[in-house]
Amino acid sequence: MTVSPPIQPVPPDASRWKVFLHSVIHMPWTWRIMLGYLFFMLFLPVSAMLVKSGTLGPGEFWRIATSPIALSTYDVTFTTSLMAASIDGVFGVLVAWVLVRYNFPFKRIIDATIDLPFALPTAVAGLTLATVYSETGWIGSLFAPFGIKLAFNRIGVGIAMMFISLPFVVRTVQPVLMQMEREIEEAAWCLGASSWQTFWRVVLPPLFPAILTGVALGFSRAVGEYGSTVIISSNTPFRDLIAPILIFQRLEQYDYTGATVIGMVLLIISLLMLLVINFIQAWGKRYDG
Question: What is the pTM of this model?
C-alpha cells in the first residue's frame, strides 16, 4: 500500500537551490510532518540554547562552566547517574529474566508495577523515597544505628536515579529475552555447559546490545532528573547538589546566562556519552553478527 505520491522528477537544467527547493516542496507528507515536529520539539530549543550561549565570549563561557560549584555538580550528576544506570543494568536484567522465564502469582501486577516510575510524578516519587529511606523511614531506620544515612545525601540522589531509570532497562531487555530461543540453551546444556557458562557464552552476547541501550536510556533519564532528587537530597553545594538543581537556582537568581552555560555543558557531555554508548552498541552488534 502506498501512503505518499511519488516525487516529481527535477528538470535537468535546474540549479542546486531549485533542486533543493523542489525536493522539499515535493517531499512526502510523512517526511514533512516528521521534520516539522522534530524542528519545533527538538532542533529549535537546542538551537535557542546554542544561540544564547554563543552570545558569551569563550573566556566568559569557560569561567562559568568551570566554576568550582559547577564542576562539583557535574561530578555528582554524571558519576551518580552512571553508577545508578550501571546498577540498574544488573538488577534490571535479573528482573526481566524472572518476569520472562517464570510464572508465579501476581506476576502481571508486578510486571505492571515496573512502569510505575513512568507514571508517578517525580515529586511524589521523591517524597515517597524520602519517607522510606530517611532515618525514621522503614528502610533508613535499619541503617541509621550503623551511622549510615540513605537520604539527604549523595546516596539518596543515587537511590532516586535508580528508581526512575529501572524501567528503561527492564522494558528494553524483556522483548529480547522473550524472542530468545530456549532450544539454543538446551543444546548448550546437552553439550556439557554449566548454567553459568550457558548464560555467559550463549544468552549474554545477544542480550548485550539491549542491556547497553537500557543503560544508556536510564543514564540519560537520570542526568535530567530533578523532581525526586530535589526532595531526597539536601541540595548542599559540593556535597549532593546536582546540575539541574543548580540551573534552577541560577534561574531563581535571574542569572539566565549562568543557567544557560551549565545547561549547555550538560547537553554536550550527555551527547558525547550517548555517542560513545551507541558506538559500543554498534560494536556489540557487529561482534554478535
Answer: 0.81
